[in-house]
Amino acid sequence: LKITLGLIEPHLMAGYSGGRKLICPGLAALETVRVWHSPRFLEHPRADCGVLEGNPVHEENTAIARMAGCDFIVNVVIDAERRITSIVAGDMEAAFQEGVAFAEKVARVDIATPCEIVVTSSAGYPLDTTFYQSIKGLAGALPIVKERGTIILAASLSEGIGSPEFQRLFQEHDSLDSFMDAIQRDDYFVMDQWQLEELAKVRRKARVVYVSDGLPAETLSGLFVEAAPSVETAVADALAHYGAGARIAVIPKGPYVLATLSGSTTAWPVGNQTG
User: Fold this and answer.
1) What is the rounded radius of gyration, in angstroms, for the C-alpha atoms of the chain?
2) Alpha carbon distance 137, 140 (integer Å)
3) How far is CA 68 from the centre of its chain?
């Protein structure tokens, strides 16, 4: 009897966590994770937060989970205070879809127009303790920031940059272009490279400014982002650049909010699922 327990919330690559994700990548071998987290999947335009239909990351790990087999799941949705707000149980795919439908209702927020400035966070502990984890907050702001806009993210970064492998990426590459060229090669793989790829997606669209007392400005500048001493300073600097009429959005807990533009099909959690 195979039973998995999990949490359903927006996920920057697979659309939503939970369900099939407890098996892949949860129980998958490194060889599988390497392919599943490769540019072949992650560079697809629908490999995005809140997207299931047409998302190859979701479709691939659903297919893998079907092959592995799962008899029963118990998944929860939680609120900002980490209290359980919904419990779904049963068939791996049907129960997951039910949980996603609930999560989408409470997490999705639509705005009419993209913003020049988005202020966000990584929702506090544990997602803001490392630079690696904090990137999830940036991804949550990406759908609503204007092209060449600015994302300002506040995070403690109390535990530093991330794993030794993740830190190695910044030592090996002096630009995101160099990094992206490297990961296209079949002979190149570094654990956690997928998170830097997510940062590269953000940086293609927007300027990124970090506010943190966990890492000095000179360290942050080596991580392909900028630094500011306070959110107020970062906002004032951005307003000076875009003008006093610039639109500003604030997402207090970035990874847990599905921010979308009104009429956008980016967030499309329920639909025909293929494997």
Assistant:
1) 18
2) 5
3) 26
Q: Which amino acid, residue 267?
A: A
Other Cβ atoms less than 10 A from the Cβ of 131: the count is 28
Query: CATH assignment of 3-108?
Result: 3.40.50.11440
pTM of the full structure? 0.90
As a whole number of angstroms, the distance between CA 231 and CA 237 comes to 10
Model pLDDT for residues 176-227, shown as the tens digit of each residue: 999 999 999 999 999 999 999 999 999 999 999 999 999 999 999 999 999 9
Task: Please name the residues in contact with 208: beta carbons below 8 A apart, sequence gap of 6 or more.
Answer: 138, 150, 151, 153, 199, 202, 224, 225, 226
Is domain 114-246 given the CATH code 3.90.226.30 in the classification? yes
Domain boundaries, the chain: 3-108, 114-246
Q: Cα(232)–Cα(81) distance, rounded to whole angstroms?
A: 26
